[in-house]
Amino acid sequence: MRNKRLQVPGHNWGLHGWGIVGKLEVFMGELSPYINPLWPEAEWDVSGAFVNDRELIAFFDYTKRVLGFEPFHLVHGAPLCNWNSGRVLKQLLRSVPEMHAVGKAYEQRRIAVYLTFSNLLIEESHLSDPLGNALLRFFDRHNPTQKNGVIMASEALRAYVRREFPGLRCVSSILHIVNRGGKGRADVYKRLAEEYDEVMVHPDDVLNDALLETLEDKGRYTLLVNEYCIRNCPLRPYHYKTLSEMSLNFFGFDGTEFEKRQSKNGCRDLMRMLIEPRMEVLALTTLELAHLYEMGFRRFKLQGRGHANAAGILFDLVRLIWRQDGPEENEMQTQALRFFESLTSGRVA
After folding, report:
1. In 3D, which of 333, 314, 309, 120 has the Cα closest to residue 226?
2. 3-state DSSP call for residue 247?
3. CA 319 to CA 164: how far, in whole Å?
4. Per-residue exposure over 205-244, b if at least 16 CB sit within 10 Å of its own CB, e if not
5. How many C-beta neighbours within 10 Å does residue 129 have?
6. How remote is the C-alpha of 285 from its chain's centroid?
7. 3-state DSSP call for residue 316?
8. Among 126, 178, 201, 275, which has the minimal tally of Cβ within 10 Å of its Cβ?
9. What pLDDT does residue 10 have?
10. Under a CB-based contact definition with an 8 Å cutoff, are residues 158 and 170 in contact?
11. Does residue 54 surpass a pLDDT of 80?
12. Residues 6 or more apart whose Cβ sits within 8 Å of residue 34
């Protein structure tokens, strides 16, 4: 059951503003008092590499210096290239010095990077792509945590990375499940967990308790928690395939048909998404995320595909990773304000 009270032995904590009856009690140990006590051992995979790096690094540095803990240790993303099927945007064209600077900034902070090379259509003929290979070489060599990896949905690319870059983790993309008939199938997830180092769970399956309970090694699975697409979206497989086609022919791709289908799908109509039950967004509530944590899952992904800028990602980072205020407190509101002010002043703390 999802909507139940959360009871964890330890320290009393008021859940002001969350609509949760009762107390949360968490043993904090040596953890910073500013870390969110609902899921203190959560491992966050954060979107925005190569697009929102300034803001992500500012958040990381501020949280470490001022609040006393490192908020995340993994980011994902990729610049515009044939293998990318995450954000396929002209704004992601990056120069070599820019890409090098991004990689070094994360390396210096021992933040692992997952390259979103999740194009469904990658075949042997695409494996010579110079930019894709240059990025693989860089993150294979600049890998202080030995946790850099590649999110992928192509068996050809998986075999290539395993052979040529064995130091990189192979991660099965959500696209793998969505477009190859794996939704709701425990046998598919278990097979992928044997073939890959980590498996991204389909957003609809994150709400499928019966399926999740059958996944024994929960440390091999990552759950997306802030998906702002509609639940059971009928357009999802077509959307992902369109992005893959666009990546392989970015400057010549005709997206007219996709625009027509998306406009009819309703996912651009915020009012419909808010009032129609069948279109409820997949972003998890606090209770839903806490329930998954109680089940034993610790790896959670924050996506940024639908965000026009870093504001949405930063909001989710503050909301999920930082402690929330109790009824008589306003400390975390103050810290959030100081952090956002630091972005305009150019000073992290």
Report:
1. 314
2. helix
3. 39
4. bbbeeebbeebeeeebbbbbbbbbbbbebebbbbbbbbbb
5. 17
6. 16
7. helix
8. 275
9. 34
10. yes
11. yes
12. 63, 67, 68, 69, 322, 323, 332, 335
Helix axes 311-321, 53-62, angle to 10 degrees: 30
pLDDT tens sequence across 281-310: 677 889 999 999 999 999 999 987 655 578
User: Based on the number of CB atoms within 10 Å of its own CB, is 109 exposed (0-12), middle (13-18) or buried (19 or more)?
Assistant: middle
What DSSP string describes 197-255?
A: SEEEPPGGGGG-HHHHTT-S-GGGEEEE----SBTT-TTHHHHHHHHHHHHHTGGG---
| pLDDT of 227 | 82
Residue with tokens 């928690």, as numbered in its chain: 225
Cα 269 to Cα 278: distance, rounded to the nearest angstrom: 13
- The mean pLDDT of the chain is 84
317 neighbors 46 (Cβ within 8 angstroms): yes
Percent of the chain with pLDDT over 90: 57
**Nearest residue to 293 (alpha-carbon basis) of 323, 322, 320, 316:** 320
Q: What is the pLDDT averaged over residues 68-97?
A: 83
What values do phi and psi take at 116, rounded to 5? -85, 70
**Distance from the Cα of residue 214 to its chain's centroid:** 23
d(CA 134, CA 103): 12
Phi-psi region of 269 (alpha: psi -120 to 50; beta: other; left: phi over 0): beta
Separation CA 217–CA 144 (nearest Å): 26
**pLDDT tier at 273, thresholds 50, 70, 90:** low
Residue 168 has φ and ψ, to the nearest 5°, of -95, 140
Residue 175: CB atoms within 10 A of its CB come to 27
pLDDT tens by residue, 87-130: 655 666 778 888 899 999 999 999 999 999 999 999 999 999 99
DSSP-assigned beta bridge partners for residue 172: 152, 199
Instruction: Check: CB of residue 324 under 8 Å from CB of residue 331.
Output: no
